[in-house]
Design a protein that fits this description.
About 50% of the residues lie in helices and about 0% in strands.
Length: about 110
Amino acid sequence: MKTESVAAHGQTVQAVLAALEVNPHRGLSETEVRARLKKYGRNELATKRPIPAWRKFLAQFSDVLVILLIIAALISVGIWWVERATVWPYGARRRAATCAGCGPCAR
């Protein structure tokens, strides 16, 4: 095969066929196919192993801000668990039921 300095997409069809030494009607002979397969290998892209889903999930928690938010949430739940005056954290349900849009909590 001849090597050209111009990329194949920038050449005419006839120039590419001549550079690759291919007959456009018959293609390559069996011996030429075997020789090129041995020289260049199969026409395949190398593949990498896919990243497992559990590793993608854990990668979401590598950021410092995300870790700080998780720690803050755990501290908040821990405080609620210790104080536990209501079923809902910080009496959220009780406040929502008593606030009817009037009084000091209305904004």
